[in-house]
């Protein structure tokens, strides 16, 4: 099965780079919106085409609490970004494979299990091995302040804790993940 692009009320399947892609264990990935790049007009520079930021939101490890990840995914979608939610119980390898297959600009990880140092580090290592360190990695969950500092030192671009507002997360992503111009 291929990833599913979810628009306002209907689902449209999508093939990716000449083939279809499936998530973990053959399940389809859920695409939370069907943003189609369109022309924009800038008064100073003329017509341009921009592609919305593409963000993979993932729940690595055995943690089964995904409400926060879904809320963040929806907030990013509502802000005009293309969001691919991978679902629960993803391995770092599956997350990185999805990000590469979907040509993602960023990966957002939600970890509540206490394994954040291991899981974030593994995702960063796999991205580096694939020469994809330009993909911005950010995340959140129940992460102690001392561990936040360590994650930032290791290369995680942003860490959000409980109570972070959706407006702050959206603003952070807009600031740290640039839109791509096409053409």
From TrEMBL:
Task: Give the originating organism.
Answer: Microlunatus spumicola
Cofactors named for this entry: adenosylcob(III)alamin
* InterPro entries given in the database record: Acid_CoA_mut_C (IPR006159), Cobalamin-bd (IPR006158), Cobalamin-bd_sf (IPR036724)
Q: What is this protein called?
A: B12-binding domain-containing protein
Q: Mind listing the UniProt keywords for this protein, alphabetically? A: Cobalamin, Cobalt, Isomerase, Metal-binding
Region Disordered, as annotated, extends over 1-23
Q: Which residues form the B12-binding domain?
A: 52-180
Pfam families from the UniProt entry:
B12-binding
Q: Which domain of life is it from?
A: Bacteria
Quote the NCBIfam families the UniProt record gives.
acid_CoA_mut_C
């Amino acid at each position: 099965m291929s990833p599913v692009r979810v628009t306002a009320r209907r689902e449209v399947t999508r093939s990716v780079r000449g083939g279809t892609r499936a998530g973990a264990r053959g399940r389809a990935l859920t695409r939370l919106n069907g943003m189609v790049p369109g022309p924009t007009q800038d008064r100073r520079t003329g017509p341009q085409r921009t592609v919305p930021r593409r963000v993979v939101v993932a729940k690595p490890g055995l943690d089964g609490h995904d409400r926060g990840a879904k809320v963040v995914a929806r907030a990013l979608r509502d802000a005009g970004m293309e969001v691919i939610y991978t679902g629960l119980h993803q391995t770092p390898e599956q997350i990185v494979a999805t990000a590469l297959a979907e040509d993602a600009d960023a990966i957002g990880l939600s970890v509540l299990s206490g394994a954040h140092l291991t899981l974030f580090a593994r995702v960063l290592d796999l991205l580096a091995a694939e020469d994809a360190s330009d993909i911005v990695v950010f995340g959140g969950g129940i992460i102690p302040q001392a561990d936040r500092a360590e994650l930032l030192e290791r290369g995680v671009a942003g860490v959000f804790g409980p109570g972070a507002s959706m407006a702050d997360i959206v603003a952070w992503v807009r600031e740290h993940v640039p839109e791509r111009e096409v053409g």
